[in-house]
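Memo to structure team: turn this sequence into C-alpha cells by end of day. - J.P.
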Amino acid sequence: MQEIRFHGRGGQGTVVASVILAKAFFKAGYDVQTFPVFGVERRGAPVEAYLRLDHQKILIRSNLYTPDHIVVQDAKLFDVADVTRGLKPGGWILINGQKPPQGLDLSGFRVALVDGTRIALENRLGTRTHPIINTAMIGAFAKIMEVPSLEILQDAISEEIPIKIQANVDAARDAYAAVRF
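Reply from structure team:
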C-alpha cells in the first residue's frame, strides 16, 4: 500500500487534488481511499488531504500517520507545520517552488520541484493572488511516480473539474513536463 499526504492552504484545491488523483489511480486499476483533514475552513488556512492506494482491497480506516510521499502545495507551510512528520525514508517530497526552502534537512528523502504557481498563472487558473495549483501538482506527482499515465490523469481531470477543463488538463501536462528531480 502507498500512502500520500497533501499539504496546502484553503483555496488551492488540495482536497480536489487528492480526489482527482484517487480517481485516476482507480482508473489505473488501484483500490483507493481519499479523505481531508480541516482545521478552520477558510481561504489560506492549512489543509491536509490523504490518499491511500493499493492493488488489493484497502481495509484500514484510520488517519494516515506514516506517508510514503508528500505533496506540498505551499512551501511556506514548512515554516508553520512539521510537513515531513512520519514520512518514510526514501519517500518523495513534491514541492511547489523553484527550490527547496532554506534551512531544511531533507536528507533521506527524494525531492522534486515544480513551479505550480507559475503554471497555474500561465493557464489562468485562479487569480494572480490566489492561483489554483492543484492540477499542476498532480501532473507533477504522476510524473515522479510514473503512474497513473498522463492520459488517465487527464481523463480524471476532465470528469472532476466543471470549469476551465482544458486549462486544468494543460496545467497537469505542463507540470508533468516541467517537474525537476
